[in-house]
Amino acid sequence: MQALNTSTIVTGERARELILRALRTGTRAIGSSLGPYGLGLMFDGGSGSPIYSASGLDIARRITNDSGAASVALRILKDALWQTKRELGDGTARTACMAVGIYAEATKHIASGLQPALLNKAILQLQTELPALVEAQKCRESNNLDVALSACMDEELARAIAALYSDLPERGAIDVQQARGSDIDIERYSGYCLDVLPETIGASVEEQGLRFEMDSVHVLVVNEVISDFGSLARILDQFASRGKSLAIVARGFEGVARGTLAANRAALRMHVLGLVPAEVGEQAIHVLDDLCVSTGATVISEETGTAIGNVRPSMLGSASRLVVEGGRAIFSEPKGDAETIRQRRTLVLAQAQKQQYLELDREKLLRRSARLAGDCAVLYVGAQSHWEAEQRVDGAYAALAALKAVDESGVVPGGGVAFKSVADSLAKLGLDTPSDLRRAAIACVAAGAGAVAAQISKNAGDSLGDAEVRYRPIDPMSTTLAILQHAVSLAATMLTVEVLIC
């Protein structure tokens, strides 16, 4: 006879105690990463190497179990921090500390007799008053270095990012990659930059991975996998006989087409190379269209009624120079029409604005817009260890996100100071509030807002604060407000959990 499955049901005050205990355990780890005195954490990697983390979201992921009543709160926290990271690029540790501070204070008022549902509603209603409180903390001046250093706590990295951002402020114009060495390097590109697959079609095995350069290059863009050049071979012969350079950018090369490029280059030193975009699917179509607009080419595709055998010289684009290296093809001084490029960028930016809830899609669109502008860079971030390199890459992304947010909204004091000032303002507001429910809600949000400064101070211990002497901690005003609103929303959601089943 099969035994019946049984579950343990935890309700009311006991459920809230279980949630609060789990949240405090989580924030004990997550909060340790806050501020200039933050600590990195090491996790047991099992049979593999130990795992290092200094990111609030990454710590939450590693301390969260997949099942059990005690894991529910941390799983909710982890999902909320993922949303914060995706939208803001930073702020996960601050969000966690504030949310738990709000929830902990709320449980005291509930124990005193307030209904959780009513307190939840009162806390959420305070969100409409938060923008004015944060706006009151706004500073008059900002400094890119201080903003970057506040976000990444790495002076060498912050200086590199601040200097680069001053030249390339458009979002998407700067890519960040982990380097093999320990240095920080910057590569600037002027022209249209296309990410391509490592293999250069037509080059020999010995040539793969080398740098290819072509002057006065013509560009053929094909939205298909080319298997046979057919009558296009006649045009290829003309390029060979006249010593002209041709780059064929297509979705792929196979069969006879691949062999033709390899044989002709080997026998005639023909200046023709095949390139395949790194993007796939619909994204590949978009970047091929961008390349056409940038170089003045016409996309060749059966779907548009243009067969590869019917290619005419007028369908080719051009650029003053092409450099292919490290998975990138840089078309310098592309000859596309300036007004057409401007219209294309306007369209791409409009699409990006509509993708506010799909951050990955939005970032890809912003990146395309920046590359159409014709000026971009790659920041290579290295370190002595793999752990440190990963941390620096995360810090670079956080710094770039902070600089962009500052451009849009200005700055407030960092290091938890702005949050503490908001907490003080809320405390004063509570003194003039006759409603017990509203006063309790204000006390909850004030407790959460003050938690960040308290955690940073705890992390500092007896430190002399050398980091604060070297720079002025400042944060984007919009990010500060968003973190506060995320924390309020998260804590209010937790208050609605009255039953745990395990």
Automatic annotation (TrEMBL):
Keyword Acetylation assigned: no
Keywords: Chaperone
GO biological process: protein refolding
Record keyword Transport present: no
Entry's Gene Ontology molecular function annotations: ATP-dependent protein folding chaperone
Protein name: Molecular chaperone GroEL
Family that this chain belongs to: Belongs to the chaperonin (HSP60) family.
Organism: Caballeronia pedi
